[in-house]
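Entry for the shared binder. Reason: the reviewer on the internal report wants the predicted structure included alongside the sequence.
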Amino acid sequence: MKFLVAIDSFKGSATSNQLNQAAKAGILEMLPDAEVMTIPIADGGEGTLDALAQRLDGFWVDVETVDLLERPIVASYFISGQTAYVESARVIGIDKMTPSSETVERATSMGLAVLLRDALSRGCQELVLTLGGSGSSDGGRGLLNALTDEERSHLSQIRLRGLTDVSNPYAGSQGYAVVFGPQKGASPEQVKAMDLVAQAFVKQMKQETGIDLQKIPGTGAAGGLGGALALLGGELEAGYPFIAEKLGLAQAIQGADLIFTGEGRLDQQTLNGKVPIGVARMAKKAGVPVIALSGSVDEVQGFEEAFLATFSIQKEVVSLQQAMETERTLVNLQSLVKNIITTRYLF
């Protein structure tokens, strides 16, 4: 039997590679002769660079910069050929702070400018910036203000690509302030104020540059960082298809008998280009069944069509903090996979 395991990270709990290895161990415990291929995967959020670095030839670069609260950090990015891969979550990730009304006011994307500047100095002709997992809500203006006119001009002369895990516009009811502001600590009053600023910025940029941020899908990604990339001449595209191609996922699916995928929470957002649904759609074309595993599972119309089954790894009612303990997550996932394998092959 041939199995493919491609599970996205459970944010704040376990990495893609850890989860994949736990699932593999569960399969092999029940079917020692099975062939199990694992692919660390992501959709543009945290863990994307680790997944890509395992498949691409290249090297890591460390730079000194600041995080989203302007605290000194050393951040890494990856260079392969003439392409630089920068994961925004490594610099401005939401995991680097405890969201509150105070932090949402302070959080800035300015620290990313150092990594872009370094990549330009090394002669990179393409720069790929992943936008998922960010904690800032500054509309990307921190990054824009940190770049000189010369650096902006230089960026416009290379290929600049932003990988998004959402398609939200910059402002309005589906903009970065309204949709993502609350999870980053914004109060209702702050959300309204942030969106007013965002709408004013949209109007200003349309007048000054002719670019309408409301008409470009993904400009609301990463607290509006997607909009900043669009203003710098960048292209915005869904992260999952780009990453899946780089990882050779379509080829790996061919010949598999069963696929395990998943993410920290299976909910309505899963259908919007997240890893599990992306894997399921590719697998459906190849006629391979997919089982999705998660820390929690919502009942969502569309899951039954996409997946053979969906499972939560939880064995009992526990607090969120307990549920996110790494060891508990990995043990539960391995145990669940063992049970799934046993059940599937009883018939």
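Summary line for the report: The CA atoms of residues 252 and 335 lie 25 Å apart.
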